[in-house]
Amino acid sequence: MIRFVNVYKRYTKKGQYVLKNLNLEIKEGEFVSIIGHSGAGKSTFLKMLIGEEKPDSGEIWIEDIQVNKIKPQYLPYLRRRIGVIFQDFKLLKSRTVFENISLAMEASGASKEDAKRDIPRLLELVGLSGKESKYPKELSGGEQQRVSIARALSHNPIILLADEPTGNLDKTNTYEIITLLLKINNSGTTVILATHDQDVVDKLKKRVITLKDGEIALDQEVGMYYI
Predict the structure, then answer these.
(1) pLDDT tens by residue, 131-187
(2) How far is the C-alpha of 157 from the C-alpha of 52, rounded, in Å?
(3) pLDDT at position 226
(4) How far is residue 52's CA from residue 212's CA, in Å, rounded to a whole number?
(5) What is the DSSP secondary-structure string of 43-95?
(6) What is the mean pLDDT of the chain?
(7) Pairing of the two strands 82-85 and 159-163
(8) Residue 224 confidence (pLDDT) above 70
(9) Cα 182 to Cα 200: distance, rounded to the nearest angstrom
(10) Which helix (H) or strand (E) holds 112?
(11) Which residues share a beta bridge with 59?
(12) Could you tell me if residue 23 is inside a domain?
C-alpha cells in the first residue's frame, strides 16, 4: 500500500540528510509506529506521505500513486485519502465542534447535508456525542484531540497519520487516544503513528520502525525498542 524506495532527503541549509536510504513497505490495514529522538526524521516521513515535502531522490508510493511525482493540482485529491492529526489539535477556537468538522468536510467537497448526517456519527465514534455546540476552550485536551480525530476521519481516509498526537496529554488521555486509534485501525484504516513515547509503543504491541539519524535502525513487530 505504502512504499518508500531508496528515499533520501537533505535540508540544504544544514547540508545533512534528515532521511537517507529509506526502504520500507506498509501494508493495507497495518498499525505502524515510527519512533526516534527529536530530529530523527519522523515528521519529515509523514510530510512526504502527504506531498508537503519531497525527497531529493527515491520514490514514494501510495497504492498506484507516486506521491513525489504528483502534480500540485492533484495533491488535494491525494490528501482526501489521508487523515492527519497533530500534537496541537489545530482547532479553530472561534468555531464550535460541529463547525470545526463541517468546515473540513466542505473543503473536501462534502455538502452541508452530508455534514449534518455524518458529524453525529463521527462524534459518537470518538466518544463526544452531544458536544456539537461546544467550543474548543470548553473541552479538555483529550476531548479536543478527539475532535481532531473526528475531523481527520470526516472524508473517510484510507490512511490516518498521527504526528505526536499524545504529546500534550496526560497518561489517562494518552491511553484513551491510543485506544481510539486502535479502534479506528481495527475498522480497516491504516494507521501510522509518529511518537517519542516509549510507553505508548510498548503498550501497542504493533509494528515499530525506529529511525536513527535518518535511517531505519529497527523494523520489528513487538517488544522493547530503545536507541
Answers:
(1) 999 999 999 999 999 999 999 999 999 999 999 999 999 999 999 999 999 999 999
(2) 17
(3) 41
(4) 22
(5) HHHHHHHTTSS--SEEEEEETTEEGGG--GGGHHHHHTTEEEE-TT----TTS
(6) 93
(7) parallel
(8) no
(9) 12
(10) helix 112-125
(11) 5
(12) no
Instruction: Say how many Å lie between the first and final Cα of the chain, rounded.
Output: 28
> How far is residue 166 from each of residues 68, 75, 142, 213, measured CA to CA in Å?
29, 27, 8, 23
DSSP run (H or E) holding 152: helix 141-153
pLDDT on residue 225: 41
Bridge partners, 220 (sequence order): 208
Q: What is the pLDDT of residue 212?
A: 93
Please tell me the pTM assigned to this model: 0.94
15 within domain boundaries: no
For residue 210, which amino acid is it?
A: T
Please answer whether residues 84 and 164 qualify as being in contact, where contact means their C-beta atoms are separated by less than 8 angstroms. Answer: no
The 3-state DSSP class for residue 21 equals strand
Residue 116 φ/ψ, nearest 5 degrees? -60, -35
Is 12 within the bounds of a domain?
A: no
* Exposed e or buried b per residue across 23-48, where buried means at least 16 C-beta atoms within 10 angstroms of its C-beta: eeebeeebbbbbbbeeebbbbbbbbb
Number of domains in the chain: 1
CB atoms closer than 10 angstroms to residue 206: 16
Is there a domain that residue 101 lies in? yes
**In which domain, by residue range, is 42 found?**
31-55+76-219
Q: Which CATH number covers residue 209?
A: 3.40.50.300
CA distance 223 to 43: 23
The pLDDT of residue 14: 64
How many residues appear in the chain? 227
